[in-house]
């Protein structure tokens, strides 16, 4: 197995969207001190690691993914000292925290970009990807044009205000396309490693890397980008060997070859992640019309390619996609979490998913959220003012709350042993008690359909997981004995000779 920080063995992550988590000063926007005040809640749930979305100086045209200063915390969240205090408080609780690194682009307000727009050459001229003429755009990319005295068009990665940093082209085809070993791309990578060095030396435990597979341009097979990240991994192994790096790539074989410790399966790409939770007929819907086979086939393919190299992670959701509770409800959510928390790879729980927070329909876009805005509403802590998120007047809240009278709250679910949160807490405790269920445990699929069955193993421990999201009882051939049941959601699995009778909307784990 490739080397990785030991704390990743049983890491269970909780994703915090800082502006929506907890507001400590009544301005309607979440902040570092608010997060600190809720760390015990996260630990009580059972999570021992945090991924926090970007928290740096920004004009917030894309919710902080448009960074104007990598070295300064955004004042609306607090100071650098407040952020370092957050690191310290996380560590006091035996937990770890990852910051969100955005290496592919900056805000157009970043001093680097302002310097790169100047006609005279300077140290930032080649920090971004520019064509030689304002009349030439880069085929396949958006661009900024006619904005400066410099002649040229600047590539953008997504939104118009996000100029692309220059890591070079794997196969340069135009005079302005610099190779990956040119001085400009090398300086850009050095600058990004300096950013990582700055925050790691102050207590950050690593980074989740935004759009990690997109840095080198004209790199169809990812070879140039893989080589770039291998340099980063060598730097980290030398200076910060306990730091973790997690990629938003969606192709684990490439990400792990590049030196990442884990990669997300997420909404875009070939993983069939959406088949599980977010499509017309999700597999985890009780209607029982979904199809899990394409997901399993792709997962097995990735698992074989990355065997003993790193982690493939399946998140409950994130800030870019619909809430889990938009398509799943009631016990469907409990069954889905039984899957998420018994699969290999580090689990990631998006804030509020553990209580079944809903997608808020009909919202206007906030900070570039557009249709994603409904998944970014404030955390619902209790039934006090603004659901306990903030004491600000309701019109000043970062994003409107779920207006429903029956919106779920953390307080109510903590008091209810039958709630979704209580079931998630129970599942996390089960996972942490059994090495076979943890991040590096092996997996072998036994049956892909209704039910879904897989073996998890580590050392001498072998566990069988049986999950049936359907509202109908299912039967499947299974000639072996089940063993001892160590977890059961809803009714118990029965064995009738060589046939298993799997109850509707159930999940079970057996020790073999």
Automatic annotation (TrEMBL):
Task: Domain (Glycosyl hydrolase family 13 catalytic): give its ranges.
Answer: 15-405
- How is this protein named in the record? Alpha amylase
Q: Which family does it belong to?
A: Belongs to the glycosyl hydrolase 13 family.
Q: Name one GO molecular function term.
A: alpha-amylase activity
Q: Which organism is it from?
A: [Clostridium] cellulosi
Q: Known Gene3D superfamilies for this protein?
A: Glycosidases (3.20.20.80), Oligo-1,6-glucosidase, Domain 2 (3.90.400.10)
**What GO terms in the biological process aspect are recorded for it?**
oligosaccharide catabolic process
In the record, what lineage is assigned to the organism producing the protein? Bacteria, Bacillati, Bacillota, Clostridia, Eubacteriales
